[in-house]
Amino acid sequence: MRPRPALILAAGLAVAACGEPRLGETVGTSPFAPAGVPRVAEAVDGLIVGHRLMAAGEYELALKAYYRAAAEQGLNADVLSAVGSANLRLGRLGQAETILRQAIAKDERFVPAWNNLGVVLMEQGKVAEARNVFQTAYALDSGNSDAIRDNLRLALAKLDQTAYDPGKEADQAFQLVRRGNGRFLLLFTPL
């Protein structure tokens, strides 16, 4: 009588199954995961993760990490400032301004929130208010931050560019041009 391949395969599987560890057993050389007490890894702080993602240019992921930090730590000035900064990088200037103002309301001495609010205001074209905000940040920081000093210089330079200069008026002439039924166009012509 010749052995059948199906019976040989079934017998081989039965023998192989006998050698496997049972549920809950641990074997030192087993390819199976050990049973026992599961390890719980400590989560990394959401602010740290968010800051690293911001540095990598992953602003949307950073915002999610900051929201996780808010759930863990609450809405303190540091978390609100981070959320506002991520919104700034994502181009959501209105949201960033609102959130950064909330951060300042939580802690009036939190320098990063003041600086980032100044950046938002500059992006919105509110240069005079941005200058005041940068001055506050610079004063709170005691002039230690080069970035805040540079931001203040930029705001002051932009204000100087938009200021009225009577010397330039002598070099400029304005001319009214009629455009039809009672409509006039004011043209600027350099002399």
Describe it.
With 191 residues, the chain is mainly α. It has a domain at 46-162: Tetratricopeptide repeat domain (Serine Threonine Protein Phosphatase 5, Tetratricopeptide repeat), CATH 1.25.40. The protein is built from nine helices and two strands. It has helices at residues 5-18, 46-55, 59-73, 77-89, 93-106, 111-123, 127-140, 146-162, 166-169; strands at 172-178, 184-190. A two-stranded antiparallel sheet has the order 1-2. Strand 1 and strand 2 form a beta hairpin. The chain is elongated. The model has no long low-confidence stretch (mean pLDDT 79).
Structural class: mainly alpha
In total, the number of strands is 2
Write the CATH architecture name of the domain at 46-162. Alpha Horseshoe
CATH superfamily of the domain at 46-162: Tetratricopeptide repeat domain
Q: Specify the CATH class of the domain at 46-162.
A: Mainly Alpha
Tell me what portion of residues adopts beta-strand conformation: 5-15%
How is the main sheet built? 2 strands, antiparallel
Distance between the termini: 117 Å
Number of helices: 9
What is this entry, summarized?
With 191 residues, the chain is mostly helical. Helices cover 60% and strands 7% of the residues.
Salient structural properties:
191 residues, mainly alpha, Serine Threonine Protein Phosphatase 5, Tetratricopeptide repeat, 9 helices, 2 strands, elongated
